[in-house]
Amino acid sequence: MDQESRKDQQPAIRVSAMPADTNAYGDIFGGWLVSMMDSAAGLTAARYSHGRAVTVAMDGMQFHQPVKVGDEVSVYTEIIKVGSSSMTIAVEAWRRERHRDSSAMVTEATFTFVAIDDNGRPRAVKG
């Protein structure tokens, strides 16, 4: 999806990348970015399923460009498939330099969540 397509959509998470999140080269750790994406997808899954949902898979992770300290990172989610207890969620992370208006997608992946009950067993998605 391009930047124009994202203008009217609210991100599931928006956060500033900080120095503590960097690797030895000064770029933001890929693991930090994956964590933000998983958190955003988890919020989407919990809201859609009206309860607890857990990550069971992550597919198709692609890094397009690095995130720098101070960048605003916005993570967008879209539920693309719903099963009896599972949800497949497309996730994109976009960066915007602190003093700029334009954004660029930095990574994308597909996450699969399963709705679970209080005993940790799969439950029906209430959608």
UniProtKB/TrEMBL annotation:
**Could you tell me the keywords of this UniProt record?**
Hydrolase
**Is 4Fe-4S tagged as a keyword?**
no
Q: Which organism was this protein described from?
A: Altericroceibacterium endophyticum
Tell me the protein family, please: Belongs to the acyl coenzyme A hydrolase family.
Q: What is this protein called?
A: Acyl-CoA thioesterase
Question: InterPro entries, alphabetically?
Answer: Cytosol_ACT, HOTDOG_ACOT, HotDog_dom_sf, Thioestr_dom
Show the SUPFAM superfamilies listed in the entry: Thioesterase/thiol ester dehydrase-isomerase
Please, one GO biological process term?
fatty acid catabolic process
- All copies of domain HotDog ACOT-type, residue ranges: 7-119
One GO MF term on file is: long-chain fatty acyl-CoA hydrolase activity
Which GO CC terms are listed, alphabetically? cytosol
